[in-house]
Amino acid sequence: METIEFEHPVARSLLTKLRERSTPPDEFRKIAYRLGFMLAVEATRNLGTLPLTVETPMENTLGEECAEYPMLLPVMRAGLGLLAPFMELLPESPVAFIAMKRDEKTGKADWLYDSIANIQGRDLIILDPMLATAGTARSVIDYVLAKGAESITMVSIVASPEGIYRLRDYDNLTFITVSVDRELDENWFILPGLGDFGDRLYKGK
Ligand code: PRP
Ligand code: URA
Q: Whole-model pTM above 0.90?
């Protein structure tokens, strides 16, 4: 696995606002969108392109067009908070969904639903803002690899060192995060973290 800690002052400042417990749900969603857009730019840095000649008002010039559109796979619920900015940057990308739920007593993730059809040979971008024990991430990655995914970029906002360690053996995985936080607490929540991302997006006041 290649781990990329996305270093950018605007991203750090947006993450600080997400962490703040008094940030209300509407603002939390907007900030997640803005940070998601920055992560979408980073996650697509190495997309392949093909040459394309265009005519400017002045002359012909050689440019490029994207040759491939990775499939987007948000992990519900929290991953839905990153989907809109990725679709904004990659409107041609297909989108599939997967829902997983962590048991808050055991920390173990259970599969609930997916809409993944044929992904043989496809490049995927998995969206899940939180990596804690990596139980969820490992289940999703194993599932899509078994279905024939070619390469995986996983995008998160906050990750634990324990979670990153548990992903280390995947060869064709690039893991992007804004912050590697300090540790997990006894309930498998990330410290300092930002709390429950899904609740902060969808629970309301
Ligand atoms: C959260 C988060 C990740 C998972 C991370 O989801 O969005 O999917 O926990 O924890 P892990 O690395 O220990 O597996 P949760 O299962 O709470 O569901 P939600 O998205 O509906 O909030
Ligand atoms: N999921 C979250 O939303 N937050 C955590 O800290 C851990 C898992």
A: yes
